[in-house]
């Protein structure tokens, strides 16, 4: 068959691929299953990767955006089953409306079964709380871009750190008030702008204020609004890697936005302790899928898609930023002119830096 590779499917699981010339004029073939003379031990590399990851740990940076009173701090605490929000771990925290959008972050090292995760929660007090909310998303856009800029600068150093600190925002959870109507103009404008530079997961906050019928209608309207306005929310169809991914992600897309309830209080239900909100009429169980979609959100952010959120941030959003910045600055990888590398959102005290406070703890 000339230069074409020939593939024969044999009985069982063994696939024999006839070697074909590669671009480097060498031969490349595939050896599977029973073709091996004996056990090689290739799969042991997974254990090696696991050990290295457990030793080094990993970073996850989550941003929560929404107006005051939507339960952002409570939901973050519920997600990670610990007091990780800025509100929870600030001894002198004052509940007052900020006059401007100020980005503040708090970091914790969470350890579970030998795996360490440095979690950073970025809060946006003041967003959507003013009489005039025009351009209130600009400090948030600046912050996200500033983290990309910081990472890019580290990458361009001649002597790079073995491991570049990753402060890039891996996920932005956007809180929608449970109005039961449509997306507000501020919601549309924010998600339009931020959806281009960060992975956005919209959720309906305090969903227990809606009946099940109202909830479904509201979710449907929001999906229509997102589509009509060309808003890109995570997970995007074009990033599905294979049919298996697509099936999993289609189920998620059908349920977005998740209608969630958050609480850090436990109650007794049928002899078991459950996280829930107690009312005169009963207990709304946070982790009961019949009551709300909190578990869907938790599974997406932590149990099934955490690494994918990081990969999309690095390979899509950061890469887009990197290409644009290098083109703007007329830099090449070989001619590192860092002295004339303008820091748009970095060293000159933007909202992302001057208004941001950071604290760390170990859980």
UniProtKB/TrEMBL annotation:
<keyword id="KW-0132">Cell division</keyword>
<dbReference type="GO" id="GO:0051301">
    <property type="term" value="P:cell division"/>
</dbReference>
<keyword id="KW-0547">Nucleotide-binding</keyword>
<keyword id="KW-0131">Cell cycle</keyword>
<keyword id="KW-0963">Cytoplasm</keyword>
<keyword id="KW-0342">GTP-binding</keyword>
<dbReference type="InterPro" id="IPR027417">
    <property type="entry name" value="P-loop_NTPase"/>
</dbReference>
<dbReference type="InterPro" id="IPR030379">
    <property type="entry name" value="G_SEPTIN_dom"/>
</dbReference>
<dbReference type="InterPro" id="IPR016491">
    <property type="entry name" value="Septin"/>
</dbReference>
<dbReference type="GO" id="GO:0005525">
    <property type="term" value="F:GTP binding"/>
</dbReference>
<feature type="domain" description="Septin-type G">
    <location>
        <begin position="56"/>
        <end position="328"/>
    </location>
</feature>
<protein>
    <recommendedName>
        <fullName>Septin</fullName>
    </recommendedName>
</protein>
<feature type="region of interest" description="Disordered">
    <location>
        <begin position="344"/>
        <end position="363"/>
    </location>
</feature>
<keyword id="KW-0206">Cytoskeleton</keyword>
<comment type="similarity">
    <text>Belongs to the TRAFAC class TrmE-Era-EngA-EngB-Septin-like GTPase superfamily. Septin GTPase family.</text>
</comment>
<dbReference type="Pfam" id="PF00735">
    <property type="entry name" value="Septin"/>
</dbReference>
<dbReference type="GO" id="GO:0005856">
    <property type="term" value="C:cytoskeleton"/>
</dbReference>
